[in-house]
Amino acid sequence: MYYPIAIHKDSGSDYGVTVPDLPGCFSAGSTVDEAMLMAREAIELYLDTLVEDGREVPVASDIELIRSRPEFADAIWAYVSADYKRKTAA
């Protein structure tokens, strides 16, 4: 599944990543590439936890629907592919 991520960069800081579809899921990296790799890891851990807890995995939003939100005004947008442990019927 592909999730949109918002990448932010403040002066004197690393690149921060927010995953709008997954509340509380965020990451960072010293480069954009590293930030995206770390975001993938954070998303996969988040999704695995949802599955293990028996909760619903959110459907990814279209960037066009979320990019106008004020908290993402200066964000760079990308999609990150993430795999997770799908629950199978016993």
Features:
four-stranded antiparallel beta sheet; 4 strands; 2 helices; alpha+beta; Double Stranded RNA Binding Domain; 90 residues
Question: How would you describe this structure to a colleague?
Answer:
With 90 residues, the protein is of the alpha+beta class. It has one domain (2-81): Double Stranded RNA Binding Domain. Helix content is 28%, strand content 24%. It contains 2 helices and 4 strands. It has helices spanning 32-52, 63-66, and strands spanning 2-9, 15-18, 26-29, 76-81. A 4-stranded antiparallel sheet has the order 3-2-1-4, covered by helices on one side. A hairpin with a 7-residue loop joins strand 2 (15-18) and strand 3 (26-29). The two termini are 23 Å apart.
C-alpha Rg (nearest Å): 14 Å
Count of distinct structural domains: 1
Report the principal-axis shape: globular
Total helices: the number is 2
CATH class equals: Alpha Beta
Which residues sit in consecutive blocks of at least 5 with pLDDT less than 50?
Answer: none
CATH topology: Double Stranded RNA Binding Domain
Q: Helicity, in percent?
A: 25-40%
By secondary-structure content and strand pairing, the structural class works out as alpha+beta
Mean pLDDT across all amino acids = 91
Question: Would you report the number of β strands?
Answer: 4
Order of SSEs, N→C?
Answer: EEEHHE
Between the first and last Cα atoms, what is the distance in angstroms? Answer: 23 Å
Instruction: Tell me the major beta sheet.
Output: 4 strands, antiparallel
CATH architecture assignment: 2-Layer Sandwich
Q: Strand percentage, roughly? A: 15-25%
- Strand arrangement in the largest pleated sheet: 3-2-1-4
